Amino acid sequence: MTELRITIDVNGEARPCTVEPRLTLADCLRHELGLTGTHLGCEHGVCGACTVLVDGVSARSCLMLAVQADGAKVRTIEGIAGKNGAFHPLQEAFHRLHGLQCGFCTPGMLMTLLEFLGEKPDPTEAEVRDAISGNLCRCTGYQSIIAAVMAAAAEMRRLGMRS
Ligand code: FES
Ligand code: FES
């Protein structure tokens, strides 16, 4: 099959790769670029585990082809910590308040929340529940997730962070 040369800006770094047109963005990130923090659950757009930001907008990377991201800026879970490796406030709050157990859903959850908190820095709990309604968690229970998001939002406001 014909392969295409594409370049995706991933977490601020130009990442050229050669892909088949049928390769999904999720598989490109995981298998071509070694970024396995993006998880695959359902592989048909339901669970949200594969969520990344494409030009600042959340996208199911299992439903998008890598060639569609040619020239785009993609942000993955590997790109949210501070330059010195310090946790992002979302990571810190999920860690401290037990917003995860197995962690499988967590990367997609956090990428969805990054977009959401950028648009709505002071959300209500109901708005947070609505925002993550497309991210399925099978083991934590949502109460501690919501508590972590509220704490992270407060910390991001304190720091003047929007993403
Ligand atoms: S793996 Fe993409 S939505 Fe479930
Ligand atoms: S932490 Fe296990 S699925 Fe969400």
The span between the termini is 39 Å
The share of residues in extended strands comes to 15-25%
Q: What share of residues is helical?
A: 25-40%
| Largest sheet geometry | 5 strands, mixed
Tally of DSSP β-strands = 5
The radius of gyration computed from the alpha-carbon positions, rounded to a whole number of angstroms, is 16 Å
Mean pLDDT metric: 97
Spatial arrangement of strands, main beta sheet = 2-1-5-3-4
Ligand inventory: FE2/S2 (inorganic) cluster
H/E series, N to C?
EEHEEEHHHH
Q: Which features does this protein show?
A:
single chain; 163 residues; alpha+beta; five-stranded mixed beta sheet; globular; binds FE2/S2 (inorganic) cluster
Summarize the structure in words:
This protein has a five-stranded mixed sheet with strand order 2-1-5-3-4, sandwiched between helices. The mean pLDDT is 97. Helix 2 packs antiparallel against helix 5 (142-159). It has five helices and five strands. With 163 residues, the chain is α+β, with helices and mostly antiparallel strands. Helix content is 34%, strand content 15%.
